[in-house]
Amino acid sequence: MAQDMIRMENLSYEYNSIEGNNQLLAINNVNISVKKGEYLVILGHNGSGKSTLAKLMNGLLLPTKGNVYVNGMNTRDEEKIWDIRETAGMVFQNPDNQIVATIVEEDVAFGPENQGVPPLEIRQRVDDALRIVDMTEYKKHAPHLLSGGQKQRVAIAGILAMKPECIILDEPTAMLDPIGRVEIINTIKKLNKEEKKTIVHITHYMDEAVEADRILIMEQGQIVMEGTPREIFSQVEKVKKLGLDVPQVTELAYELRKEGINVPQDILTVEELVKAL
Amino acid sequence: MIIKTENLNYIYNPNTPFEKKALDNINLNIEEGDFVGLIGHTGSGKSTLVQHLNGLIKPTSGKIIVDGIDITSKGANLKEVRQKVGLVFQYPEHQLFEETIYKDIAFGAKNLGLGEEEIHRRVKKAMELVGLNFEALKDRSPFELSGGQKRRVAIAGVLAMKPKVLVLDEPTAGLDPRGRDEILGKIQKLYEEEGITIILVSHSMEDIAKLVNRIIVMHKGKVAMEGKTREIFEQAEKLEELGLGIPQITSFMRAYKRKGNQVRDDILTVEEAKEELINYLRRKGNA
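^ inputs. structure came back:
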């Protein structure tokens, strides 16, 4: 199991309402392994349990039942919690909620400062992190004057500066415009391919999911589909029934097949469909 | 003409080092009963513009005429303007505050000074329009609802004021595909069945392509492009220069045409593409 970055075993999580009489089983007996270096996308409609799952992955929430291991460390182990959060860093939806300092490079330095990293090393890490997200030229800027995509890249740099092996992103593009989305997706790809970070990416955008090594689809706290993007999206009807979508070209290929036109059913991109027709 | 702007300018923080021209000489004409898409990347001035349309921001210079009233003139009745132009902000569910869904939706209408009976009628109708069951939900707390439902409560609150124009700023942000389809379906119905003029601000070119008749593209505080939906999406290169894009399906048809296939490249939806391709492939098969 040494190659597992995150392992979830018989994991359940229950939310208790304030009155204490309403319980919601948000995660229902789930088993997942995320391999080191993998790029995993999690899909599912609102309320399916995706964000809960993400928060269980680095100990922001602790399981009601079962166990979560991050690089072999159990999130229930209080002594390991800081190591766990250093190993698996999290990026959230709204960049404005994640930025704490008034200068970009100070914001990026916040994490490693709290880890007690020596100043020279912090300098190095901040420079490296800003370079990776392509924000070096903005290091002296005030974050609130940046665009959404730039702010989100600063937030990612802040996580990178803590040198995590794994980065969990919970709808990082939901509040961004098309350019901002492309910036973030390219950054995520780079983190995975060049920096060899394990990526867990939660999203509602099917075109983003196409880039993954593997997709999990959640529904009512359980994993209902699992496979490569090609395996998942070729099942157009099943995916739609789960309240999700497929990329427009995949849908077109599916519609054409229904009309008796000979097109493969696992089309994912514009180029593939042009070639197939 | 329901909304008209003349030489509209707005400067943030004038006479300070942070001075920024957010709107630069905007001249718009929006026809009554139209469905208009407003697009542009973050910071292009979209949100600043829509906040002008019901008098939330006063222009630095220029005129805004709503349903014949110059709202920038002295003594303009802004209350009336805000009733006419309903603005639904981004993440409107964050603005819910009442104990029950009924009270929350009734809030605006109540402030118009309407009687109980009229308010009751309007709340019921507004809930119907957004697809919320009146009897089952009216006495429930809005905070028990799902994200998509909460957002529909917020939209119903604006509809209960019976606006002539409904401006929606990113109504689907953060929703899942099903929630997106639900909200957009309701908006389309408002346009088709209730005849409300709609201005939709969105980052999703797919949604804009599916719904609107006309598009206004903002860039650096100016109107960079304006025209029918099909005309705008035919100019893919220009849109890309402005930091925008075209729907994936449109970009597929363009790529397919470039390969020497005689198909239309001004396609906006999957359904249109399907029809066009089937016709084309059958023609080709018979030839």
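The mean pLDDT of chain A is 91. The first strand of chain A starts at residue 4 and ends at 16.
thumbs up if we can close this ticket
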